[in-house]
Design brief:
The complex is a heterodimer of chains A (266) and B (294). Chain A has 266 residues and is of the alpha/beta class. Chain A is built from 11 helices and 11 strands. Chain A has a domain at 2-74 and 165-263: Rossmann fold (3-Layer(aba) Sandwich), CATH 3.40.50. Chain A has helices at residues 37-45, 70-73, 90-97, 106-110, 114-133, 149-161, 179-192, 205-211, 229-234, 236-243, 249-263; strands at residues 2-8, 11-17, 26-30, 52-54, 56-57, 60-61, 75-77, 167-171, 197-201, 214-219, 222-227. The two termini of chain A are 19 Å apart. With 294 residues, chain B is mainly alpha-helical. Chain B is 72% helix and 3% strand. Chain B has 11 helices and 4 strands; from the N terminus they run ααααβββααααβααα. In chain B, a hairpin with a 2-residue loop joins strand 2 and strand 3 (134-135). Classes of the chains: A alpha/beta (266), B mainly alpha (294). Chain A binds chain B through residues 45, 67-72, 76-77, 79, 83, 85-88, 92-93, 95-97, 99-100, 102, 104, 106, 109-110, 112, 116, 119-120, 123, 159, 163, and chain B through 158-159, 162-165, 167-168, 170-171, 174-175, 177-186, 188, 192, 288.
């Protein structure tokens, strides 16, 4: 994504932000509340149309990106929270994610012709494999509402992974997880790297620093730093955005107003 | 005793038809959160298509298949062309649109097919089966009605439970936004859902017409009963629609069979039952949500 700007009714939520996820890398997107992380994320999914800037994927520009095209492009995302379908079993939830791999046409699926039966079987197996991989296979027949939150998160991740995306977008995957669970999540994400590219929006700094190859830092809709975890950590602009300048009370106050301006529009 | 069995069978048969109509309403409510007031006149339209085929010499079965198929097409077109612009908007808009459609289709039927009473055939007899000397009150027609609705319901269950398309339709019903992100073509699913609902609605219209007279507004009482059945069941639940339809069919049959001047009390009894159920369980018998807005 290059030169992305988003304005909501005259308020600039994002201003000239560029971000590139290299193949097979884990790219972190961090910043204080209201920095525009989620907005940028939504731009990448086609949920928010940028006022300016271009989005390209595998060297081709995506002009009118629409959410339903994402999976066929090889992009999957998870949502803040989990967003599982409440009235469907865990297995069925994941099967919906595997949708794009179905081969039988719409009509034969509707009429339940033999080709689509085989299809059905394949989807089921694929979904089971994804669940097994994430250690949630034994919950396959349960409904999401009856499962503990961390398990639901695993299921949501399985549902995103089952489409075998080339780019996996994770929106605050660690929220609501305990220290141990976060550690497991970190290892899981690392194990994915190389196989898929990951764009990770996250609050938990230690998780981001541990798993990311590169990091982009946003503050008040502007890109203030980008680089490896070590580079970003050493960047004074980043420290300031997160901690404020402890010595200069005035700068601190200005910082707050800035952050507030962005917060209401995130 | 014979009389009681007779009334019960009549009630079950009618109840099955109410159930089918209620199911059509529930299918649409679940997928688009719209109550389709035009369901009745859409079904009437397809019944008249069947009738004109039969009058032209086609067999009942050919007419049935063509009517159900045109029901699907009509439902899909209505969703795509008329409902799509008001989907996701204020609920009142959709209500007004479907009410308007209800009136418009009924008027169109009168213009095209005439507004006189015309008899609609039934493929089976209405005399009870005979076992030896005695005639039992179960008629081939009531068996056909019950069987047709049961088969349709079984097919729907199979579609939603065991096929990929059914899965995608359910996903779209739970959350359009999430389904879209997973690559489900939600718009197509909604069109399909309306088409299927219209098929089920058409079936109820054809079944209730069998052996009686049809005219442009002949579905009006079925609309009331089907709607009551759907609300009793919770509007959200297909099982609820079926149970609601059967409860209502039986109750109304007993009222009309036993109460003095019972047949005059049928419609009002339906509304009494509705109020009674809503007083005890405001969300309906099978509602999964505690509060419902419509």
């Amino acid at each position: 994504m290059t030169g992305i700007s988003v304005a909501f009714g005259g308020v600039l939520a994002l201003s000239d932000v560029s971000l590139t996820v290299e193949p097979g890398q884990v790219h972190g997107l961090i910043g204080p509340n209201g920095a525009g992380k989620t907005t940028l994320f939504n731009v990448a999914c086609g949920l928010v149309r940028p006022t300016e800037g271009r989005i390209s994927w595998r060297g081709e520009e995506l002009r009118r990106l629409r959410p339903a095209q994402l999976t066929s492009l090889g992009i999957a995302r998870t949502l803040q929270g989990v967003g599982l379908f409440a009235g469907m079993t865990v297995l069925e939830n994941v099967m919906v994610g595997a949708h794009r791999h179905a081969r039988a046409g719409f009509l034969s699926a509707l009429l339940a012709l033999p080709t689509s039966d085989k299809d059905e079987q394949r989807l089921r197996e694929r979904a089971m494999t994804a669940l097994t991989e994430l250690g949630a296979a034994r919950y396959a027949g349960r409904y999401p509402g009856s499962l503990p939150y961390p398990v639901q998160k695993r299921v949501a991740l399985a549902r995103a992974l089952v489409s075998e995306p080339d780019l996996l977008m994770l929106d605050e995957p660690a929220s609501g997880l305990s220290e141990d669970e976060m550690h497991e999540l970190g290892e899981l994400i690392r194990s994915l790297a190389g196989r898929v590219s990951v764009l990770l929006v996250e609050h938990h700094m230690d998780l981001v620093m541990r798993v990311c190859d590169r990091i982009t830092v946003l503050d008040s809709g502007k890109q203030i730093a980008a680089g490896t975890p070590a580079e970003v950590q050493a960047d004074p602009a980043v420290t300031e955005a997160y901690l404020g300048d402890a010595v200069d009370a005035e700068a601190d106050a200005a910082e707050l107003t800035n952050a507030d301006g962005g917060r209401t529009h995130d | 005793m014979d009389y009681f069995v007779n009334v019960t069978i009549t009630g079950l048969t009618q109840g099955m038809i109410y159930a089918a109509f209620a199911l059509a309403l529930v299918l649409i409510w679940r997928s688009t959160r719209i109550v389709n007031f035009a369901q009745g006149s859409m079904a009437a339209a397809t019944t008249f298509i069947a009738l004109s085929l039969i009058q032209a010499g086609a067999s009942y079965w050919v007419a049935l298949v063509v009517a159900l198929a045109s029901g699907f097409v009509l439902g899909a077109i209505v969703e795509r062309v008329i409902i799509r612009p008001v989907e996701g908007g204020p609920e009142l808009n959709a209500v007004i649109v479907t009410l308007g459609l209800f009136v418009a289709i009924q008027a169109a039927i009168a213009i095209i097919f005439g507004s006189s009473f015309q008899s609609f055939p039934t493929p089976f007899g209405v005399r009870g089966f005979e076992i030896g000397e005695t005639t039992i009150p179960l008629t081939p027609t009531s068996l056909y009605v019950i069987g047709a609705v049961l088969v349709t319901m079984a097919l729907l269950v199979a579609l939603f439970r065991f096929t990929r398309v059914g899965l995608a339709m359910r996903a779209s019903a739970f959350s359009q936004e999430v389904a879209r992100l997973l690559g489900v073509k939600v718009g197509g699913m909604l069109t399909l859902g309306w088409g299927l609902a219209a098929v089920v609605g058409s079936l109820s219209g054809l079944l209730i017409a069998g052996g009686t007279f049809v005219y442009p507004a002949y579905m009006d009482s079925l609309i009331v009963f089907g709607f009551v059945a759907a609300i009793i069941g919770g509007l959200d639940s297909p099982v609820g629609a079926i149970v609601g339809g059967l409860i209502l069919g039986l109750a109304l049959s007993y009222v009309s069979g036993y109460a003095p001047r019972g047949s005059a009390l049928v419609t009002i009894s339906a509304l009494v039952i509705l109020i009674g159920v809503l007083l005890v369980r405001p969300g309906g018998l099978f509602s999964s949500t505690t509060a419902r807005r419509a």
